[in-house]
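Quick start: what a row looks like.
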Amino acid sequence: MNSLRTFAAAAFVVAGALALPAAAQTLPVPAGVLNLSTTATVEVTKDVLNVAFSVTREGADAQAVQAGLKQALDAALAEARKIAKPGQVEVQTGNFALYPRYSQPGSKGGQPLISGWQGSTELIVQGKDAAAIAQLTGRVQTMTIARVGYTLSRETREKAEGEAVAQAIARWRAKAQQMSQQFGYAGYTVREVHVSTNEPGGGPVPMTMARAKTMDAAEALPTEAGKGEVTANVSGAAQMTR
């Protein structure tokens, strides 16, 4: 008799466990849930100037081409280091590439042969001291300007993000309260919320070689910082309450 009771109890437990998923699927859909999204944008002045210098060399000998690139980079780097200041002007070398140039195969076919070598290298200068960097562009004579652009510093971007997020959240809360009342509810509670920010791209842009080559040692690069925008998005669900 005891074994039958034990078997019956076990069967009841198994049956109850099997019934749980079905019961979970029949739970009522939450009522009075409001999905909202808001956006806020803060406009700030871009405060970091980015200038990329570049130089190319070509010749019959790979070592000679590499030496020419190094000489041009060393001279430009020496000038750039004169204005380097932590937090104001940062200097770093960029890409350094050296690759062969091949001749066209003859009329009788055959493998193309190496006819020479070509290489290029970059020097990147960026920082908040735009005046010093602009003056540097007139003193660097062994490289030309490849790209110029303004971006936001980390400090400026983070401050703008904080302001944009605060505005977007305030708008979301006001919108949730207003719409809850319009639906006949007294207020709301937050069920779920997502916050994201983004800064539109505005990095260095190409500069024509003709413009770069006309600059002499006494001429500084004319620049204009322009504005940047940081946008915050807030989306989520509010539970309207009586």
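That is the whole record. The beta strands are 33-45, 48-59, 89-102, 114-127, 144-151, 187-198, 205-206, 227-241. Residues 48-103+113-151+203-225 form a domain with the Alpha-Beta Plaits fold (CATH 3.30.70).
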